[in-house]
Amino acid sequence: SRILEYMRLRNYGVTVKEMRAMLMADADEALLLLDKKVEELRRQADRISAVLEEHKRVHAWQQKRRIKPVDWEVREVEAHYFLPHTMDSNFIRDERIYPLLKIWTSWLPIAKSAMHLKAVESGDKRYLPCWGIILPKSIAERYDIPTSEVVEEFPAGKAFVYHFAADESAFSMEKLSRADHPAFRQMKTLNLRPADNLFLIVEMKLINPDGSRRGGYGRFVMPILACLLQVLRQTNRIRQPKVAGNRLESVRYLQAG
Questions:
Q1: Rounded to 10 degrees, what is the CA torsion of 115, 118, 121, 123?
Q2: Among residues 56, 80, 70, 44, which one has the least CA distance to residue 161?
């Protein structure tokens, strides 16, 4: 019967080290300890549920990339948090980052690796790239994922979203700092201008047999300047580029906004 009791406690998540103290406690204290274990299990279950939900979305998204490696749309994007960690290939020296980074990375793949591009005026550079972890604000609030003053918050709004499967050059900090990416060129054909804060979100990265990087899948989220949106709404039109595979339904969505 003692073995069965140990098995019961193990299924609660009680460690071998904790079992003796729990079995020797009085009934009320033992129940309180089990309540704490159940709360831990509930958090784990919530996280697993969130991972399953996210995988379902990613699976459907990647199936679309098999049919159409590159696609785009203009739509509303929700507010999100960004935790920076690497600038110019060097970890940022800010001790406030790393306790949060440990927690946030435990929420991958719901949280995502992402590059933040901030508009700058510096020689031939148009953007300052910074790697970090991006997380929807709604997810952080739903699961009580901690934030602090080092976390940047970006509001909800309308954005040009560029979906792609590409080689490693599509993730190059050097090229992206010069706005050298197909997403910028596609946006230009639509007569749209990006706002000052852009995000390249990594869905999956792949490697070659020799360990070298061979690209992967990503989304480029490029908020649109509000002044241009007002013009688009007033004219109720957007000039159509003569490019095969346009997402006309996305353009109509923008007009209706």
A1: 0
A2: 70
3-state secondary structure at position 211: coil
The answer to pTM > 0.90 is no
Residue with tokens 């690209």: 215
Which amino acid, 205? K
DSSP state of 58: H
**What are the φ/ψ torsions at residue 192 (nearest 5 degrees)?**
-110, 150
The string of pLDDT tens digits covering residues 113-161 is 999 999 997 777 789 999 999 999 999 999 999 999 999 999 999 999 9
In angstroms, the CA 55 to CA 164 distance is: 18
Q: Judge residue 225's burial from the number of C-beta atoms within 10 Å of its C-beta, 0-12 exposed, 13-18 middle, 19 or more buried.
A: middle
Smallest CA-to-CA distance from 147 within 187, 97, 204 is with: 97
